[in-house]
Design a protein that fits this description.
alpha+beta; three-stranded mixed β-sheet; 6 strands; about 45% helix; about 20% strand
């Protein structure tokens, strides 16, 4: 994967720090907080640099920002511009992400029914009990 090239195709300069941040999000494969990112990258950049670069990655659609019930923002790689959806365990708080084309079709249908030309964002979170917590009961 050429992360520098991906950044360039989205009109972002591939600085060393931005590439490291994007690479981390790409390979993490789950939503992570700024705190988690900072713990892994603090040798390379401070929190201000992380915030600034995350804002830019979100703005161009390479990264998705989600706000869950935990009170913190989470960030994750947004593959091919597809919206990631999440399910949160009510017991342990673990968050899993997934993509479902049917949910995208619902959004398209809502746009048509309500007469919206463009929906610039949405949020949809599911709650339940994960398999690990279910097994503990």
């Amino acid at each position: 994967m050429d992360f520098a090239e991906m950044l360039l195709t989205h009109d972002l300069r591939p600085t060393e720090k931005r590439v490291k941040l994007f690479e981390l999000l790409y390979y993490t494969n789950k939503p992570v907080t700024i705190e988690t990112i900072h713990k892994k990258l603090k040798r390379f950049m401070d929190k201000v640099t992380i915030y600034r670069n995350l804002e830019q990655l979100v703005a161009v659609g390479l990264v998705q920002k989600s706000d869950f019930l935990h009170g913190a923002s989470y960030f994750e790689y947004k593959e091919d511009g597809k919206q990631n959806y999440h399910i949160t365990c009510r017991i342990c708080g673990s968050v899993s992400h997934f993509y479902d084309e049917k949910l995208e079709k619902v959004l398209t249908s809502i746009q048509k029914i309500r007469g919206y030309r463009e929906v610039t964002g949405h949020s949809c979170e599911f709650f339940g009990v994960c398999s690990r917590c279910k097994a503990d009961k």
